[in-house]
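Q: I have three molecules that I believe assemble together. Could you output structure tokens for the complex as a whole instead of separate predictions?
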Amino acid sequence: MFTNRILTRRGNPAGFGRLLLMLVVALFAVLGMSRAGWSASNITISGSSMLFPLEQVWAVAYMKSHPDVHISVASTGSGFGIANAANGNITIGASDAYLTKAFRKRYTNLVSVPIAFDDAQVIYNIPGLKKSTVLRFDGPTLARVFLGDIRFWNDKHIRALNPHVRLPHQKIKVIHRADASGTTFVFTDYLNQTSQEWFDKIGRDLSPAWPVGSGYNGSDAVVAAVMSTPGAIGYVGLGWVQEYHLTTAALKNLDGYFVVGSVDSINKAGFKALKDPEFPDDFNRSIVWKLHGKDVYPDSNFEFWMVNTNLDGDTMKHVRDLMIWALSTGQDPKYTVSTGFAPLPFAPLKPRLDKIVHRLLPGNTYNERSPG
Amino acid sequence: MARMSVEKFFAYYGENAALKNVTLEVPDQQVLALIGPSGCGKTTFLRSLNRMNDFVKEFSIEGLVTLDGVDIYSPDMHPVVLRRRVGMVFQKPNPFHKSIFENVAYGLRIQGIRAKSVLADNVEESLRSAALWDEVKDRLNDSAFSLSGGQQQRLCIARALAVEPEVLLLDEPASALDPISTSRIEELIQDLKTQYAIVIVTHNMQQAARISDQTAFFLLGEMVEMGETSRIFTNPSDPRTEDYITGRFG
Amino acid sequence: MEVDNVVPLEGTKEKARTGNARPGRVSSNTFLSRSDRFFGWSLQGGGVFILGLFSIVLLICLIESWPSIAKFGFSFLWTSTWNPAHGVFGALTYLVGTFWVTGIALFISIPVAIFSALFLSDYAPKWLSGIVSTLMEMLAGIPSIVFGAFGITFMVPLLRDHFEPFLANTLGKKWDFFNGDPMGYGILAAGIVVGFMIVPLVATVTRDSLLMVPHEMVEASYALGATKAETVFFVKLKAVVPGMVGSFILGFGRAVGETMAVLLVIGNQASIPQTIQDVGYTISSLLANTFTYAVIDPLYAAAEVELGLILLLITLVVNTLGRRLLMRLMGGRLAGSVGGG
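A: Yes, here they are, computed for all three components at once.
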């Protein structure tokens, strides 16, 4: 019953569903192409399954106001998106992760455009605990749990952080994502920045080598597994927390405050990052565990569109217009919050966006929008 | 002295009477041949003697069949017990997907005999009785399907003998075999009749004349006449029998 | 056959040239030979297509996985570290997981399938057997994701709350292998779900074989005073061994490659199961979960393709060994056996 409900949300993240979706999208893309010819107004976006629902509502809204543009969207996984944007198979590659140094070297022609904001929040199922009880975690303790070193809920490290909570002697069941996932990247990024042990043994990745626990395909399956397994701990993004009114742990941030993830606390993080002159304009750096502030949630990050600098001029202009629309009109909560993201604060983003547009279309700024 | 006797026996497939008012006796230590044209009911009759027709849908009978005085269709006689006492060999060799040894031992095993020496003795004795021992004694563990058709049929006879029946029913046992195998089977039947009551269905009149002591002639579901084989073949009392054995029909 | 076809054709041509042949007959003969040949060629084309397709799949797998093969060699097979971030890949964990799921699936499905096949062929009244057979064929056609959903909603809670604790408290007292932590998800759930999936396959093939057992063989058993149960178990079942082994191989092939249903219930954790209650990972579910991501890194992608190649080779080897086993079982005397496959 429970799983039925959640299977309907966000399409079907499972492999077969994804494949089917790709086929359908490809079919529509072909139909679209035959209608519009091989014109430049055809934009294909493919990649991150997490961004997919947001891109879908964007595409519908944008095509309504821009009838000359056809957008096809596919959920194929971030890796597919990055690789295929780099080799020119698609117009835009959607990715949950920024380009790490190694990938920047391999894919030199890609520009990362921050497009939305997401986070990873820790959820748990502890028998005997009131639903409203918020547990506190810091990075090293969380890392020990996910490394399998802390095995029971009443472990002294967890108790030290939660002196007022009566924790049972219950085995911890670690639940993680099995598919490559942006949420996993954001989550392991937090562990990576805060725990030397995690950094040495596992690292951050969309699909890391999990030492313990069990993996599930898609956030819906993670929620279902945590809810149905006594003693479970897992992580999901903001959208899922809101959808199911889940209680999530407060995570320790750089200044020592324990903050629960919310649209507000994540927005604050984005604002701080964009205002920070140290933060690079190519966005190729994590903001996890980098930000000061009392209300700043420490485990959030950007979602990206990867754009190939070698696109032809006409296509590039359409991409620029779409990008700017997405970052302004498209950040409305009716698009972002409703599909599980926090809006990006536009004001501090504007100057950085200018530089991105310069890289894509030398001599252009975002203000010089093509008419129509 | 009769081993089995049949009185006023009727057999039906649904509404159709396949046997009408058959009365005869199966003599002990003799061979009784059932002859007649195709569809005359002789096979139905044979299969009624060990209730193999029970598996045929809509088959029913009237009349009395006794084995040593006991009605074989009464609750006093379980068909499984009956079939151990009245063995049967079929038209086509039908060995099991087992070794030569296990084919013969099968009937004993299902009776619960497990002792290796008992099984081995019985198998050897049965194979000897079926005149097959010398040909297979070195390859008892080979598949029964490695034997020739004639050998397979003798194996089936050995298999039937192993459970020590009192009556042996043979349904055209040589019709699928070559002449040499046929004559071996015929010799075998001659040997076996000293210990068993044998009923054989055959199409081959010469065969009936060669091997049987008594002959019963069936026609259109009725038993026309029965008697000493020599008399039936030389001096039949019914003109229909004469027509048949002189080849005027059938 | 080639010779039979060609020689008379040459002959008629010769005759036609010398003008002695009857034209009508020659042309019709030629036409028949030609259409016969054309038919032969098209059949040959089908065979070549299959061979070509197989070779291409194998070749592409080899090429695509070459970076991984070159780098790790055979150690790929017996090392268990799989860490894309560090560029280290070893397949052992996934091989073991695949082995367990397939083993449990066959262990469960084979007896169930044989019993249902026997029921359908010999015990069920005709009307019931018809209904159950139809249902079974429908069951065989259900998409595996539906079995996966059944696994999550039904098997996982059942295993977690009842069966796995029961195993731990009984067999687990004696063997550590059964004394795991009840989780519901894991190799047991995956094995059972896959087992259910292959029951219809194995049962249908076995039932068809049983139905083809010659009636004479059955009668022979009855005539020896065997009961129905004795006949069915000792004679009929024995006669369909080749067909059954064939169906087991089919079932194995299905189980070893099953993806969606396994992925949903196995727990997708790359560690070697220590108990039957543990989670695990199979080759196919790993590929389904991560392959679209793996394309980002050539070595990562190569390692995953190599896993696929291994899966292909396992199926190939089992099929071949299965055939060999059959040959040995029957000692080349397949005459009269049923459903040899």
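A: One point stands out. Chain C has two domains: 2-69, 73-336.
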